[in-house]
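Hey, quick one: can you model this chain's 3D structure?
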Amino acid sequence: MANVERFKVTPTVTAGAYSANDVVGGRMQFAGLRQGTLQSITVCDNAAQAVDYVIVLFESQPTNIADNATFDIADADLAKIVYQDTLTSASSRQAFTDNSYHFIYNLDVPLQGLSSDIWGFLTTTGTPTYAATSDITVVLQ
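Sure thing. Here's the predicted structure for all 141 residues.
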């Protein structure tokens, strides 16, 4: 059995409100993730926001989009996308008393021959409000 590695990023989010289609936490770097097979994605949400998230992963560093700004990928970055998916509040969210997590399991996305770390953006199609700047953690496995 192959080794399973987890790559975590806790982006600094705005302690406050977001609009639909905003970037949550700005550009993320998954340092050390350059090859393997992407098996799952988890978004840990300490504020328990029942919103949909979209994650977009890139094979190299994309142009930055600031936290809480409208998600608008630069044209030059479109060809760098290696994966994108939606984590919905209805089908891929587990809510607990005061926190929740969104998940996508059973992925089989090859990440081979990359010369850079995987980079990404998390966006929301909802309007979440976070209480703390560390309310979100994204985990790639």
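One thing worth noting: The mean pLDDT is 95.
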